[in-house]
Amino acid sequence: MTALANLYTPEHAMFRETCRRFFEKEVKPHHAQWEEDGVVPKDLWRKAGAQGLLCMDVTEADGGLGADWLHNVILIEEQGRVLATGPGFSLHNDITSPYIRHYGTEEQKQRWLPKMVSGEMITAIAMTEPGTGSDLQGVRTTARMDGNEYVINGSKTFITNGQNADLIIVVCKTDPSAGAKGTSLICVEADRAGFKRGRNLEKIGLKAQDTSELFFDNVRVPPQNLLGAEGMGFIQLMQQLPQERLVIAVQAIAAIEAALEHTIAYVKERKAFGKPIIDFQNTRFKLAELKTKATVARVFVDECVAKHLRKELDVAGAAMAKYWTTELQCELVDECLQLHGGYGYMWEYPIARLYADSRVQKIYGGTNEIMKELIGRTL
User: Fold this and answer.
1) Which helix (H) or strand (E) holds 242?
2) Between the N and C ends of the chain, which has fewer C-beta atoms within 10 Å?
3) CATH number of the domain located at residue range(s) 235-376 in this protein
């Protein structure tokens, strides 16, 4: 029993079943094609919205279900169960949506949230720039007032949902001389003049997930698109990043459990020297080690989720969750691939895709080196 056991209700169980049916029917059969295409079709988002799978914790007044964040966790787990890394639902649900919910005006919420819930509007957040990486204080994209509008100039890279996004939250400098205190968050609609999408980046993994360069060339937006107060962007980012890092930890444990499930099934069927691979002591011992580590990770992640639901998860705790689970994810998936032998290196096998998809988990959301720094500051 984990820290979440007493929090699950029959409603959560029904929601999990809805998620499972959706990913089995609408995603799993098509995911290989989307990997070739490098993008998920937009109509999938509208299908997800119709099933109540987008921005579940948005209030009913703003067009959502008013559900608790445990629903978001369930969706991440069910998406991970079928290795459906393509749809960028979690970024939309767990990262961009909270910025608008927590810092947006009532007018902004009414303008954007109902469309986000329905899947009519897909969102992205543009943080990373060429040459800055995890250094959010070093962003060079600027937003200067000209008359009664902001004029945005700059470029971003590694932007999830970049090809599909209809609305992008842009991290920019409204006062370049003020350092972190000059950072603001401004929403940019994708149909504004001067906004341009770059190429859909070709990645090692997450091949069905569109990840793009974005360019802003004198993009003019009204001050009504500013989230919260000018100069508060860095603080807003710091307030929301712990949830993003916990999301990555939830994704990690889902991948860990999927890797183990596929590997155990494989070693029971595959034979070597006349007997199933599971009958070799080395296989059983290795899987015993991995199962133990996975169980410890599940207990830890569930405890962090429970803390987050109580609003008690701090920056260091989220950093620990992100760092430790993603390190384990890469270690465990590598060991599981080894147990597949040569077949583990074949793209048609789930473990090969898990291997390719796992590596980036130690990079985005703040590299694991940054996570150690955040933890170390509290010692």
Assistant:
1) helix 233-269
2) C
3) 1.20.140.10
Q: Where are the domains of the chain?
A: 10-121, 124-231, 235-376
Cβ–Cβ under 8 Å, residues 74 and 12 = yes
Count of C-beta atoms within a 10 Å radius of residue 311:
6
pLDDT in tens, 161-180: 999 999 999 999 999 999 88
Going from the first residue of the chain to its last (379 residues), give the mean pLDDT of each consecutive group of 10, the final group possibly shorter: 89 98 98 97 98 97 95 98 96 97 97 98 96 77 96 97 98 94 97 98 97 98 97 95 96 98 97 94 98 98 97 97 98 98 96 98 95 97
Pick the catalytic residue from 244, 289, 369, 373: 244
Residues 242, 247, 252, 254: is their CA dihedral positive or negative? positive
195 by DSSP, 3-state: which? strand
Tell me the CA end-to-end span of the chain in Å, nearest whole number. 30
Whether the Cβ atoms of residue 272 and residue 119 lie closer than 8 Å to each other: no
Distance CA 110, CA 87 (A): 25
**Which whole-number Å values give the CA distances from 200 to 26, 38, 119, 130, in the listed order?**
23, 7, 21, 15
pLDDT tens-digit profile of 90-104?
999 999 999 999 999
Same fold, 10-121 and 235-376: no
Q: Can you give the pTM of this predicted structure?
A: 0.95
**217's tokens:** 């060339």
Provide the 10 A C-beta neighbour count for residue 21: 12
Q: Is residue 35 flagged as an active site residue? A: no
